[in-house]
């Protein structure tokens, strides 16, 4: 598995875990700020949950979708430099 592919799956899963019960800290903060209840909110979130789970399945089982982003940005993943070095080279137009 490509490290970028693994990283995207990991971050995507962490984001999903942050907005879904029972842990869902972000969801519970939004409910408190909005002055509503979990029962009212979840009925609206069902379609959103289906969409993000579909996105997770696509990223997980179609690696081309997640690794194409880095190939299109001209960042060389095989070279052993830091990510900040690559970004600075792109900004200066040297890549």
Report on this model:
With 95 residues, the protein is mainly alpha-helical. Helix content is 75%, strand content 0%. It contains five helices and no strands. Helix 3 packs across helix 4 (63-72). The chain is elongated.
Number of strands: 0
Poorly predicted spans: none
Helicity, in percent? over 70%
How many domains? 1
Supply the number of helical segments: 5
Order of helices and strands: HHHHH
Distance between the termini: 26 Å
Helix/strand/pairing category: mainly alpha
The profile of the biggest β sheet is:
none
- Oligomeric form of this entry? single chain
The dominant shape is: elongated
Would you tell me the overall average pLDDT? 78
Instruction: Report strand %.
Output: under 5%
CA radius of gyration: 18 Å
Brief summary of the model shown:
The chain has helices at 3-19, 25-34, 38-61, 63-72, 83-92. With 95 residues, it is mainly alpha-helical. α1 runs antiparallel to α3 (38-61).
Q: Tags for this entry?
A:
95 residues; mainly alpha; 5 helices; 75% helix; 0% strand
Mind sketching the topology for me?
Blueprint (H helix, E strand, L loop, with lengths): L2 H17 L5 H10 L3 H24 L1 H10 L10 H10 L3
Helix pairs in contact: 1-3, 3-4
